[in-house]
């Protein structure tokens, strides 16, 4: 390792994907900024394993264990000075969390913190601010596998933070479980999302925003579709047209938009239904996409702590 540097590893165990971020940070200077060395992502789909008792089944846990074994191998090679691992909505909600967590920690070789929804929202906002470098008021939307975070505020100073009990995997399994797509199913899903946000609409609108940024997989999938189709702006009207095109295909397996990856096809409808609900309820017409997310927020906090 280079003298005067520390190696950091941030692990984000999301409800859909697990992420490992490896970075180096100089211990010199007033405003040290981490250098990302490597990123690893595995589609674990943990939230796909919920049964009727809201317990995670054996197969989903095993997918998590296998992923963390591979992360442990990367950590062994990188030899970080500090490792921080957090788990989000799927483990937070799992009734059998106490049985699962030791298995996951043993596979990773490090302790795992199951964080609250508010803490998740804080880290997401921090990560988006670190990556986007926006000025003015920001509204951030992060649609995860089992929860959706909506945060309003100024950079590094969130004023309204909420974690809602809805995610792309959970919504997909609830509203489109058999793979059939209908207008009525979309309407039910969108309305459910609107209802969850509606109690906080006035608080978000009072905070205000100059920019709306989306984080994580659903937004990246939309950006890739839009780019492939030559769509320059991400708007609510365009999203409504995309939903109508999904309805016309009638089946999830027949979704074939240019730019849509196969690994995103299975949960696209759940994610865009949530997004349409949030946009409609808050009166948002245009939104953007950011690369920042929870793991970048976790890394930013680690840097601040280690270099203080």
Automatic annotation (TrEMBL):
Protein name: Ppx/GppA family phosphatase
GO MF entries: pyrophosphatase activity
Pfam families: Ppx-GppA
UniProt xrefs under InterPro entries: ATPase_NBD, GppA/Ppx_hydrolase, Ppx_GppA_N
Domain Ppx/GppA phosphatase N-terminal per the UniProt entry, residue ranges: 34-305
Organism of provenance: Idiomarina aquatica
